[in-house]
Amino acid sequence: MYLKNVKQYADEGYPCNVKKNIVGNDEISDVEQIRAKIESKIRLRIANEEVRREDPARTQNAVKELHTLYTQLNALSSGRDRINVNEKVAQEFGVSARQIKTYMSIDKLIPELRQLFEQNSITLKDSANYAKLSETEQREIVALIQNGGDKQELKLLTDQLVVAQKQIKQREAEISTLEKAQNEVLAVKLQQEEKIRQLKEEIENNAKSTTGHQAELEATRERLANAEGELRKYEQLVKKIEKEKEEERAKLAEQTRKKMDPAPGMRTALQVENLLQMIAGVTAQFKEILDKYTAVYEESEGEEITAPEEYREKYRQVTNL
Q1: Radius of gyration over alpha carbons of the chain, in Å?
Q2: 3-state secondary structure of 303
Q3: What's this model's pTM, rounded to 2 decimal places?
Q4: Nearest to residue 138, comparing CAs of 120, 119, 165?
Q5: I need a surface site. Which of 17, 20, 36, 129 has the fewest CB within 10 A?
């Protein structure tokens, strides 16, 4: 009992919140008063969480609040007085800065997944993985959970979405690189076009000259031909880059389509549900027809037709398969 309830405080001190009334604007600035209030809230929050950290949802709320308070404190500081908020909060909770980022990422969950996290229906690790997905992707996770997907199916769907997301980002980066290259080539192309315009003007002026500068005229024409050759090269390069961009856009569209396609496990669950609904509909329809047949049989006065009991027996055999 001593080790569990007393030793920690004997070694480290007992957490408490000391309130101090601050009066007199001449003695302390408004900024210092705000800082003191924030520091008081920080001490109180740490004290409240000192012995209650078993609930991940509660801890996440505490981490978020403490993160906000230290961020506010940082805003009042400058230069060397500023701290790394994640590292400071991690120190207070005795975890890594990476773990603090994990807790903070939970705020990116859609309400349905957030509720499951708060109910301890999904783990902190899984919640952090889901938080990396878009809202639409998270709704796919919710749909699979609601359709009874097991851990393996959920992991499969999450992995598929994460991989597709990385591939899409890669395609987007490749398209961006190609667009940058295309802009650079177009800039050079404009320079060549301006150079050709100047050379044509120079040739026209030399041709009109009465003094005659045939050698200069021929040299200018040669430069013009070279410039036009360079321009054609750049035009071909622009077309090549444009084609590569279109190919990357097509790949991006394909990756996006695949990403939005439900995982096999989810498709199977939906197919089974649809099949069960169809069987239920057919069963109800068969029962209705059989009831009508029974009424007609009772009015048949012994005619040799199949008794309803035989049909009911076949019905039971089928439905018991």
Answers
A1: 38
A2: coil
A3: 0.48
A4: 165
A5: 20
CA pair distance 314, 289, nearest whole angstrom? 14
| Helix axis angle, 56-75 to 97-105, nearest 10° | 110
Token digits for 156?
């499969």
Residue 89 near residue 100 (C-beta atoms within 8 A): yes
Contact (CB, 8 A) for 105 and 128: yes
* DSSP codes joined into one string, 122-190: S-HHHHHHHHTS-HHHHHHHHHHHHTT--HHHHHHHHHHHHHHHHHHHHHHHHHHHHHHHHHHHHHHHH
**How far is Cα 134 from Cα 166, in angstroms, rounded to an integer?**
12
Token output for 183: 């802009």
What digits encode the pLDDT tens for the residues 1-23? 778 777 777 777 766 655 555 55
Write the DSSP string, 249-302.
HHHHHHHHHHHHSPPHHHHHHHHHHHHHHHHHHHHHHHHHHHHHHHHHHHTSTT
pLDDT tens per residue, range 286-308: 677 767 667 666 666 555 666 66
Q: For residue 28, what pLDDT is reported?
A: 63
Rounded to whole angstroms, how far apart are CA atoms 89 and 104?
11
